[in-house]
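Illustration 12: Lipoprotein LpqN.
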Amino acid sequence: MTEQTLRTGRTLTATRTRLAAAAATAAVVLLTACSSPAPSESSSAAPQGTASQSTAATASSSAVPTATAAPSAETAVKELVAGFPATVLPLMKGAQIQTSSIQHAEPVSTAALTATVTAPSADVLSYYTKAFTDQGFKAQPGDAVDGVPLKTFVRADGAEILTVSVIQTASTATFTLGATLLPASFK
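Figure caption equivalent — predicted structure in token form:
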């Protein structure tokens, strides 16, 4: 194995662990927030040091540092935030958006989507495995982290990373999509 392959493997393992924790936290926050519905609104926010930012930093750790503008983040509740890469991260049929967000930075940007659907977690993972592999992403080994169903996909020599994690409650699956993408994927 080359040093680059080993570094990519360690990066993916660390990223999957952080994203699983973030997905579990997002699901708890989401389930708590669902008890008191909020109106649909979009907002801009300063970076908060999220798992997605850590993913972007980890994914670009081998890139040459350059001076760039400060990252910008946007979120939306019950809708897709403007500029969301819906082609790369499609919404599963019948799913209801709970939150979406994007953060533009260089050399990669991040996007996240949390949604619910009346379907088993296996169906959610199957849908997104097909959607992502059809776009040239390669599924990585493993289907869960700490008991949470989670699948990771990469392309562009590991510069682009997608994850899907699912928490099942009765007949409802709450899933989170996380993405670290190159700027071209946001168009």
